[in-house]
Write a structure and sequence with these properties.
CATH topology of the largest domain: Immunoglobulin-like
Structural class: alpha+beta
Number of helices: 13
Radius of gyration: 56 Å
Shape: rod-shaped
Helix content: 25-40%
Oligomer: single chain
């Protein structure tokens, strides 16, 4: 991993900043929630104390002799339904319909209140509808019977009244009021009977002043006109339970103390909802701009885990039966956090008992959303995110720029160190050598090492010429002494020794000649006269000579052009080729083919046309350990001892290539080795 990526990973540590900020916001949001719950509980206690001053508005008190199932609930309607026998125009949902067991199936009904009227809607499952006539309408003993719906109205201690709905045919129905004093039609009651598959539907509008405080529904289902049928009632006792309706007075009182964004539910001791005031949507929520998608996602992910139960709102049946409300009706306050199914926002709901004279007469449920907390946390989170992103970008940019600077300095130092070994003279002054940091120390250390290496290379470069010069005179003395000794009378054994010494001096003379050859080539390169010539004919004539000299090898010459002009010394180029061919012959076997190729190409490093000379031969590959030393002086790559080769051939070839402004390389190819010389072209 390069330095840029390492420092870029280090910059990711700045993610700790938004994490720490989010943890702080989470703790702050939790504290704000707790504070909101406490304030809401205090408000609920104050409202409960105020409503406790109006016990008459709570229709049923604890200990009353009735069953909860006997009660009917009058939903507060926002608009008046059209009395046509259908439910589709009621401002309620189907979930508000109450169910009774019937003869042919369930009986579903609901009552609602709008202004001064009570509305009734009922669905009756009836496989055989029996319509009435005048005889079935009149309460005469032994008369005819029909399917009918009755409302039982009672105001203790007064007597009961019955409002009866019997249809002669689908359509408008005339309601009859029956009491101990008589039986008469109620012209102020509007009703409509509608036949539907599997039964019938009845819808009625009754003036509220015709009804008592207790109300119940009775359905008579008969199979024929001679049978009284089976009775289904909404109450199990002899008289119906109290009719529960909303209290306008309680709503008015609560509305005066309720703050925006709060909703208040008031229930009696049975959980029936008798007042609903307020709206959970705060004024701030309606006037502020919507939160951006990414901020909402961040808030939901970081601040609200969403572990609360889903908020369901007021019960459609009119009776609140949630456990925390039941707890408050039992006399103990409670609080629960919910999560909105629509927006996902948290909602706190506080339940407080309403008590008067040490008796619980109901409960209030005060609910509030977290819009104010959301507004605060959203603003804080937005600032935190913006600041964190800016900080991360700045830190990442600074580290990336610093990494780029360090990488550039290190790369320049690496390039300079590599190039210092490519030239004839090793450069010891490297980039950043004057810097007072660690890279400067490294550059100076490299320069010192390269300086020592240059001195050592210079010593090795001149060693051959020095040895050749120093040993030539002693060698001449030894040779002349041996020649003089041969003219003396010597024994056979002495002659053998002198002949052996003579061979040694001849061998030593050849070694000194080879060692001095490199020095002569260097001097020739410095003083040689250059000329412009075509390399192709020079190579062709030389390769023809090789075919005669090395008859046991075969030579091929490939050329992709007709003219290959260059500037230099043809004699030295031939000498360089001699060394490469001699090396190829040495590492190949009899009958092998040595390939020579010449081509023109572009040098990417110089952007100039160049000539490439290739010499390839089959044989063992170049040893990896010698790849960087094979062009050094007196380095031999032959695995066996060969007294004829001193390791100076490739060194001389490199001197000639460098002297012509080119470079020489050696690579392993399939089945052999190829040496390539790149020379500048005209």
């Amino acid at each position: 991993m390069n330095l840029k990526r390492q420092l870029l990973l280090v910059s990711l540590l700045t993610l700790m900043l938004p994490w720490a900020g989010c943890e702080f916001i989470r703790e702050t949001e939790s504290a704000l929630r707790q504070n909101q719950q406490q304030l809401l509980a205090g408000t609920a206690r104050a409202i409960a104390g105020r409503l406790a001053q109006y016990p008459e508005e709570f229709a049923v008190h604890a200990g009353a002799s009735h069953l909860i199932g006997d009660q009917l609930y009058g939903h507060e309607l926002e608009s008046a339904p059209n009395v046509d026998g259908y439910f589709d125009d009621w401002p309620l949902t189907k979930a508000s319909l109450r169910s009774l067991p019937g003869v042919d199936g369930p009986i579903r009904f609901v009552t609602g209140i709008f202004e001064q009227y009570v509305y009734l809607y009922i669905e009756v499952a009836d496989k055989n509808i029996v319509y009435g006539d005048m005889g079935s309408l009149l309460p005469i003993a032994g008369g005819r019977h029909a399917d009918r719906v009755r409302l039982i109205s009672h105001s203790p201690p007064y007597l009961e009244e019955s409002i009866s709905f019997t249809a002669e045919a689908p359509g408008p129905v005339v309601a009859y009021v029956q009491n101990p004093y008589g039986f008469e039609p109620a012209t102020t009651i509007h009703a409509h009977w509608q036949d539907v598959p599997g039964g019938y539907q009845l819808e009625a509008r009754i003036p509220r002043n015709l009804l008592g405080t207790h109300l119940g529904v009775v359905v008579n289902n008969t199979a024929n006109a001679n049978d009284a049928g089976i009775r289904s009632a909404s109450f199990a006792t002899s008289t119906p339970g109290p009719f529960v309706s909303t209290s306008g007075e309680l709503a008015r009182i609560a509305e005066g103390v309720l703050q925006p964004g709060m909703r208040l539910l008031v229930t009696d001791v049975n959980g029936w909802r008798i007042a609903t005031v307020g709206d959970l949507r705060s004024q701030q929520e309606t006037i502020t701009a919507p939160v951006s998608t990414w901020l909402r996602f961040a808030y939901d992910a970081l601040l609200e885990p969403g572990k609360e139960p889903i908020f369901s709102g007021p019960d459609a049946s009119g009776r609140e039966q949630q456990s925390y409300i039941v707890t408050a009706i039992g006399g103990q306050r409670s609080a629960v956090w919910f999560q909105s199914a629509d927006s996902g926002r948290a909602i706190v709901s506080v339940a407080e008992p309403v008590t008067t004279a040490n008796e619980t007469i109901g409960a209030i449920v005060l609910q509030q959303g977290t819009d104010e907390i959301l507004s605060l946390t959203n603003q804080t989170l937005a600032r935190l995110m913006n600041a964190s992103i800016i900080a991360m970008l700045v830190v990442a940019g600074v580290l990336l720029g610093y990494a780029s600077l360090l990488s550039q300095r290190i790369r320049r130092l690496s390039t300079a160190a590599e190039q210092a070994l490519e030239s004839d003279r090793i450069e010891t002054i490297l980039p950043s050598a004057d810097a007072a940091d660690e890279i400067g120390d490294l550059s100076r250390s490299f320069g010192h090492v390269l300086g020592q290496l240059g001195d050592y290379n210079e010593y090795l470069r001149t060693l051959a010429s020095k040895l050749s010069h120093e040993l030539r005179t002693p060698l001449a003395i030894v040779s002349s002494s041996l020649e003089n000794l041969e003219h003396e009378s010597l024994s056979d054994s002495a002659l053998a020794y002198t002949a052996r010494a003579r061979d040694g001096t001849d061998r030593l003379r050849k070694i000194l000649s080879a060692m001095s050859e490199a020095s002569r080539v260097e001097e020739l390169m410095k003083n040689a006269d250059t000329e412009d010539f075509d390399l192709r004919p020079v190579l062709e004539s030389t390769i023809n000579a090789y075919r005669d000299i090395y008859a046991e090898r075969s030579f091929t010459f490939e050329c992709d052009g007709s003219s290959f002009p260059m500037s230099g010394s043809p004699e030295l180029i031939i000498q360089m080729l001699d060394k490469l061919i001699d090396n190829a012959v040495s590492f190949s076997a009899r009958g092998d083919q040595i390939s020579v190729a010449l081509s023109a190409e572009e040098d990417d490093s110089r952007s100039k046309p160049c000539l490439r000379l290739r010499v390839a031969n089959p044989g063992p590959p170049l040893p990896e350990r010698m790849r960087t030393q094979m062009f050094d002086s007196m380095v031999s790559m032959r695995p066996h001892k060969d007294n004829k080769h001193l390791g100076l051939g490739l060194y001389v070839a490199k001197i000639i290539a460098d002297g012509h402004g080119g470079r020489i390389t050696g690579e392993n190819i399939e089945g052999g080795v190829e040496f390539s010389v790149l020379l500048p072209s005209l």
